[in-house]
């Protein structure tokens, strides 16, 4: 395989630009020297720093910037003579639907500035595979069709990447056609990971040193996010027309994918496949759960009350259970789309783990800046019922002071390492020192330098039984986003190696590098990931981990949600 | 806008249809909240609003569905416009493609909808005169030929925004008995069949 024989970017990509595989893929051995000169060298990439180009996301969420300038940029791009006009089939989806509406082909030839194009310039629309800056990005994500049509690209304009897409398609199809599957390719510092989902190909090109399993898991979530928006029945479009242009169907969802990619570096839910709860007094959560349960009994499939990415309460009807990945993808979709915050909304949504073929209908309402209710139903005529349910729920939440408690918890309740009870044996008699600051306040300053007890800096605890996790607040020493991302990447690696089927289930792992000492401990009930200062003593660290586990057990009624739906998940349906 | 006691209150389901970026959400937010934002994010599915309007001695309570212009939601539109007492089809006067799209919506409403539905055509972004691409005469003629009432509006400057809703309310009061807005939400098709049927034509 030779990526450098990629059609020269100034070469106009045509509809049939997929090169014959045999020409392009004389050999599958990939040497670094085969890569375009500025794709591989490490030195140039380093100038982008340690993180994987998050600025696209950050500017995108700040949502400022003038439409007119972005629109102008968009127009210029389109009129670039080097860019082939979108193929006529790009309007196929709606256009050929008898009763429905089509954008005329003319409209597609000359796209007008649209508001949904605004984030595109934040994702560096001016770039394509010829740009040095594009090649220096540390982590690319692509979605393309098996005919080589671009569907999504993290950076650059999908339309301008047609040639590059065709190359990726050629690589994948070449291997698929020989009856094999391509999983990944290494090229110097770069790793190219592939995920084939029927007619849809997902590719990640990264030099972030994340594990293959980790990156593949991220591609799975990208695919899940796409299904959440379109369902798997989009595959039928490809059966009808292999050259189907799917990109327009994802119009206006750039922020959703940007926010998802951003989550890969800050949200442990993306690799733990577990969700996290907002800590609340048991009685408060009970009040919320009781009214949600009432609603679920009256025809709602799922009712979720969440605060940002944290679950306050969640119930499902009868045997219906919600997979943690679905919770994560749903929350990402809702939180990244400003549209849900302006009023009540009623929108089709697919939960890929629940049923990837069908839409459910989501009634979404924000009670305040960060607390929102989602009611899911299979009935498309349920809006007014759900609206009534919401006002009943709202009454109860107000009466029980739940929304106020939620805001308080958001401000105060974090698991702080320095609150870790001093001695596990005394815990059986004394009440758990939940969320209190008094413990060790004296020692605090000295411990800041070396970490908490035994040099503990941070931990993530996942309850296997509940599919839920909790993590401690980051200490000062890991207060910068860059440091936090690095720690999560280390956890991800640890997770991958602990769950690597080839080497069997590890029980514990102790790793020391220049940044930290990492400790992982997996039992039938839980997984614990902990980071210590690099000088930490192993036996001390293990003792502290025992204390952490005891602490979590003491707090479990406040930091986890116990509900029928989470139980039935494990008792009833097998986990995919 | 509050209803006076003793007034008759009519519920009226109103739906906004139109191309991505035509300004449907902006018109609704101007009407309901008196706001305008320079950057309004693309709508997902459909957003629901209600607003009451007093017309002479009657009160109309609009239950407004602001639908998404994104292509993937088109096949779901009937769910929102079915049973609507009124519809506003919106286009952007600086974007001829959006006018073409608006005509398709009108056609669809005429084919699928209720003939008593009051349909308004709104040429939005009327503040952007320098970049106008759809002539007012062309739209007027089209509206007359199709029995729509037509206004150019600007969500940004508020020109004609309240007026178009007021005009709809007046016509509803003159023309029809009060409607039950909830009747409009009934949809017989199963949700999963809908995407299937819509995707069946992309060959
Ligand atoms: N100058 C000007 N801009 C407007 C006007 N109305 C809307 N806009 C802008 O046009 C863009 C699109 O407006 P929206 O209200 O989101 O359009 P929409 O029809 O709801 O779009 P979808 O929800 O994607 O279908 C936004 O950036 C608005 O600020 C107007 O009257 N004048
Ligand atoms: Mg809108």
TrEMBL record, chain A:
Feature: compositional bias, Basic and acidic residues: 117-126
Single Gene Ontology BP annotation: vesicle-mediated transport
Chain intervals for the UniProt region annotation (Disordered): 1-131
Matches recorded under InterPro entries: FUZ/MON1/HPS1_longin_1, FUZ/MON1/HPS1_longin_2, FUZ/MON1/HPS1_longin_3, Mon1
Domain FUZ/MON1/HPS1 second Longin span(s) in chain numbering: 299-393
FUZ/MON1/HPS1 third Longin domain span: 455-554
Bias kind Acidic residues: ranges: 44-56
Sequence ranges assigned to domain FUZ/MON1/HPS1 first Longin in this UniProt record: 139-257
Task performed by this protein: Plays an important role in membrane trafficking through the secretory apparatus.
UniProt family annotation: Belongs to the MON1/SAND family.
Name recorded for this polypeptide: Vacuolar fusion protein MON1 homolog
Lineage, broadest ranks: Eukaryota, Viridiplantae, Streptophyta, Embryophyta, Tracheophyta
Automatic annotation (TrEMBL), chain B:
Entry keywords, A to Z: GTP-binding, Lipoprotein, Membrane, Nucleotide-binding, Prenylation, Protein transport, Transport
Superkingdom of source: Eukaryota
Membrane topology: Lipid-anchor
InterPro entries, sorted: P-loop_NTPase, Small_GTP-bd, Small_GTPase
One annotated Gene Ontology cellular component of this protein: endomembrane system
Transmembrane domains' residue ranges: none
Keyword flag DNA-binding: no
Location in or out of the cell: Endomembrane system
Listed CDD domains: Rab5_related
GO MF annotations in UniProt: GTP binding; GTPase activity
Keyword RNA-binding carried by entry: no
Gene Ontology annotations of biological process type: protein transport
Alphabetized PANTHER family for the sequence: PTHR47978
Family: Belongs to the small GTPase superfamily. Rab family.
Protein name as annotated: Uncharacterized protein
